[in-house]
UniProtKB/TrEMBL annotation:
<keyword id="KW-0884">PQQ biosynthesis</keyword>
<feature type="compositionally biased region" description="Low complexity">
    <location>
        <begin position="1"/>
        <end position="14"/>
    </location>
</feature>
<comment type="subunit">
    <text>Monomer. Interacts with PqqE.</text>
</comment>
<comment type="pathway">
    <text>Cofactor biosynthesis; pyrroloquinoline quinone biosynthesis.</text>
</comment>
<feature type="region of interest" description="Disordered">
    <location>
        <begin position="1"/>
        <end position="25"/>
    </location>
</feature>
<dbReference type="InterPro" id="IPR008792">
    <property type="entry name" value="PQQD"/>
</dbReference>
<dbReference type="InterPro" id="IPR022479">
    <property type="entry name" value="PqqD_bac"/>
</dbReference>
<protein>
    <submittedName>
        <fullName>Pyrroloquinoline quinone biosynthesis peptide chaperone PqqD</fullName>
    </submittedName>
</protein>
<dbReference type="InterPro" id="IPR041881">
    <property type="entry name" value="PqqD_sf"/>
</dbReference>
<dbReference type="Pfam" id="PF05402">
    <property type="entry name" value="PqqD"/>
</dbReference>
């Protein structure tokens, strides 16, 4: 999944084209997106209208914490506690791509 960056959708502040997520942002799944476990694939998936995105383990772990309450920094810290090393920039890039695709919405912290 490597979408071109067309901008980000942010609640409360309007779009900020070309800007990634910051540590104080609070990501959450967009209203039309559901994180579910697919028994057939034995993996977490994102379900969207007419689309299913199969997630790898780390992507699913990130999105499970995207509830609008956790900041990006808190998500990185939680994953770091679970797995020892979590590259902060990779989590931000992943979330930035999902925001660009409108799978995730961001509110300012």
């Amino acid at each position: 999944m490597d979408p071109t960056q067309t901008g980000t959708t942010r609640t409360g502040t309007g779009p900020r084209p070309g800007v990634g997520v910051s540590g104080s942002d609070r990501p959450r799944l967009a209203r039309h997106v559901r994180l579910t476990f697919c028994r057939t694939r034995q993996r977490q998936t994102l379900q969207l209208p007419e689309t299913v995105v199969v997630l790898n383990g780390s992507g699913a772990d990130i999105l499970e914490l995207c509830d609008g309450r956790h900041t990006v920094a808190e998500i990185v810290a939680e994953l770091g506690a679970r797995y020892r090393t979590v590259p902060d920039d990779e989590v931000r890039q992943f979330l930035t791509r999902l925001v660009a695709r409108r799978y995730v919405e961001i509110s300012d912290g």
